[in-house]
Give the backbone structure.
Amino acid sequence: MTTQAQGNYAQNPTVDAPHAAPVNQPAQPQDDAVNAFLAQISALEVERETVLAAGLPALQRLAIIAQRDTGQAATVRLFLLGLYNGYRFPFNLTTLRGLDLELFSDCIAVLTLDARATVKEVHQYFNNGGELFEQFAEIAMESRA
């Protein structure tokens, strides 16, 4: 290589010398895909935390209501049972229209919790939740008889 050619490399470092590693190479498509994937995971975690923060207190309130003996309590009870085991306790969503706004909002928060957080099944958020939901089932069966 001549001195003149060597001088050009020194003056313009972005010019590739033969057999030299590329300088200032643009980001790889894999880097973009990995960053997008990590951003998606981060967004899902933020969503999960938000859903848990709204859904868990709503679930607690609904479980208290479900133990009462009112028409709205029966709807809440059947809603919770539908989440617990939809095959065993099918729930007609139009019955939610009969709930007052606060209970309706709690049901939607719990449905979102069940659908988006997917941390546990709805009854598993309670100590002895299986027993609690089976009590709801007994009350529901008694009221149908």
